[in-house]
Amino acid sequence: MNDKNILRVALIQQNITNDKEANRNKLASCIRKAAKRNAQLIVLQELHDTPYFCQTENTNNFDLAETIPGSATDFYSSVAKECQIVLVTSLFEKRATGLYHNTAVVFEKDGTIAGKYRKMHIPDDPAYYEKFYFTPGDLGFHPVVTSVGKLGVQVCWDQWYPEGARLMALQGADLLIYPTAIGWEETDTEEEKGRQLTAWQTVQRGHAVANGLPVIAVNRSGHEEDPSKQTNGIQFWGHSFVCGPQGEMIAEAGTKEEILFADIDMKRSENVRRWWPFLRDRRIDAFGELTQRFIDETE
After folding, report:
1. Which of the following is catalytic: 26, 94, 116, 119?
2. Which of 266, 214, 224, 259 is nearest to 240 (CA)?
3. 46: annotated active-site residue
4. What is the pLDDT of residues 136-177, one digit of tens each?
5. Which CATH fold would you assign to the domain 8-275?
6. Residue 119 a catalytic site member
7. Which one of the listed residues 83, 156, 224, 243 is annotated catalytic?
């Protein structure tokens, strides 16, 4: 770890309980363990303080949200400062009464807030009723500048869209980062489960290739029950991973709790982009129609 071009990252993949304080303390313990193993950048999964409450629409769940700054940011700020690491968190933000966001907050090594990102794409699918809770982000796609590089942080459902990754890359992001909460419904067939997991990894590895940047994706693990009992709950599939700028797998977790470490060569993107100059060859003069919802030639 003497090479200044090598960035050691740690991804904390964790099961979550109903005890917010216990979840935070467990995460803090893992952060300290990762820091002792020389991790410089540590990334947590989506909405890591609580169970994934979006399986149901329940107004009482808004009580889980916190202001920024607030008790959550105070807690993670102190851990980042203690461990002298850059920390990417994912919080349920109460911006104002009746206005809430799914927000990633990045802390610098001194505990200050380096920046934040509000989730832009909000799903509304069975067991993922996020539109009930979250207002779409209004901060745009802008990398957060930190001492370990410019971090192109997005959140979960954003990872399926190439546009956000590209906009981060065009503003000089050094890494693409996706805190995530995704899993299977128990009645899915094994074949369908395999297709979903493969698609999830493939689309993000595609962002790495298309933009010549490493990608960090951190998912949660464990089974979480559906409080409404209408489904069998979600089995979060884990498989957090880090891939390089050609989509090559650097590290991948299994399905259980794990601290996943990866050493990223921060100079590799420079070489890859010289070999594959996609940014040079983009036909920006022909992309105007991308801002349309759908291109219907009959209209």
Report:
1. 119
2. 259
3. yes
4. 999 999 999 999 999 999 999 999 999 999 999 999 999 999
5. Nitrilase/N-carbamoyl-D-aminoacid amidohydrolase (3.60.110)
6. yes
7. 156
